[in-house]
Amino acid sequence: MSGTARLDKLLANLGYGSRNEVARLVRNERVLLDGTPVDDASARIAVTDDLPTRMTIDDEPLDPIPGLTLILHKPIGVTCSHRELGPLVYDLLPDRWRRRDPAISTVGRLDKETSGLLLMTDDGALLHKIISPKQHVTKHYLAQLAQPLRGDEAALFAAGELILEGETKPLVPADLQVLSPTSVRVTVTEGRYHQVRRMFAAVGNHVETLHRDCIGKLALPADLEPGDYRQATAADIAAIFS
Predict the structure, then answer these.
(1) CATH T-level fold of 69-132+218-240
(2) 3-state secondary structure of 207
(3) Cys-Cys with 226: which of 41, 75, 114, 175 at CB 3.0–4.6 Å?
(4) What confidence tens digit (pLDDT) does each residue in 211-231 have?
């Protein structure tokens, strides 16, 4: 994001409260820019990438400005939804971030029992670019199976002829790398509902655990614990499309 914005609108859109509440923060000298209290909530300020390092609110750095993309290590047991019951991925973020405008959304979904790399962003254009079939962005999964492979799965997945139960359109070819008789690495470019689990169901097997470790060439950081997240860099975003 670049250009200028009214301070009260910017902070309201970042979830710090209504414009009146933001004005109260300013009056109470709780908003500082370059160490100096801001004295006018309606002032226009330059919205630059370094603003979160220059502005503080209650002595805490400003939240990331719009154009935010997160790399999150989704744990098992949380749902990629705003509405379902139980723990949600949005619960892993600061409460204030639920009030951001534009809103933060997941880039696609991982089901409740799948762990691993999940992207979240408030950049609608980036979100649609990543999930667009035209981009052929690869998603890589590690799966543990209930039964040993029978031997023909890799050829079936690569043929582009496998049809999932309840559907009529064949899957786009997918790659299967065998790691052991019951563990595999699967690479897909589509994002159909429960796709990897249903692929193995179609060949008479069952996925016991599923973990996504890469999107494109962006790997889940080894030091990112389940439930933790960090802001994606420009290099991270570029790696998705490599």
Answers:
(1) Alpha-Beta Plaits (3.30.70)
(2) strand
(3) 75
(4) 999 999 999 999 999 999 999
Token duo for residue 48: 């630059």
Distances (CA, A) of 163 to 28, 136, 157, 200: 63, 19, 10, 11
| Gap between the Cα atoms of 210 and 205, Å rounded | 13
Widest pairwise Cα distance in the chain: 71
Q: Is the dihedral of CA 122, 123, 124, 128 positive or negative?
A: negative
**How many Å separate Cα 172 from the centre of its chain?**
23
- Tens of pLDDT along 106-147? 999 999 999 999 999 999 999 999 999 999 999 999 999 999
Cite the residue boundaries of each domain of the chain with CATH code 3.10.290.10. 4-61
Residues in a beta bridge with 142:
185, 211
| Closest CA relative to residue 211, chosen from 144, 149, 164, 120 | 144
Q: Which residues are catalytic?
A: 111
157's CB contacts (< 8 A; 6+ apart) are 171, 173, 174, 175, 176, 186, 199
Return the number of other C-beta atoms located less than 10 Å from residue 42's C-beta: 11
